[in-house]
Amino acid sequence: MRIALDACVLVPTIMREMLLGTAAEGAFAPIWSPRILEEWAWATRRLPEGAEAVAHIAIARMRARWPEAEVTPLPEFTLSLSLPDPGDRHVLAAAIIGEADTLLTLNRKDFPTRTLARHGLLRRDPDELLIEFLTEGYDVAGVAESVRAEAERLSGQPHAAAPLLKRAGLPRLARALAREGTRGAINTNS
Asked: In terms of domains, do 43 and 109 share one?
């Protein structure tokens, strides 16, 4: 499965790390464009000082890990597309040029399902997609534990996985991991 990642799913660190962790597990092949990555870095300017530099480091790592993920749609093609917000056409163009099956976004209103279907794309949100990967047998619990441990290492404070995932916009995944009985494999309560 090839999935185009909108910038909005890359900005929240925990969400991004959960998605890229499952991609590294082989659940999907990520797709993005230079402009999507630029949007992500630009969005971090509103975060505390240093966030943009961290985003640029993460972008360099992503490009090194998945060199085939980056596509660059021609401006003429991008301008030929129609969406409620013309500023989002570049995301749709990247998905089409990258031959994605799915467009992963939190922005439902600006990516109508009918418009995406005309281009052979399905719109999904990260929470439902990660739950699907969990039910398909991918090690989402292991990825969540790695992400939790890294958050703990960076902050120097203990973190429980469930609240961390909920704050990251993945509340259904947090509940699904608890229901799956992965509490031994993932630290949900510390």
From this structure: yes
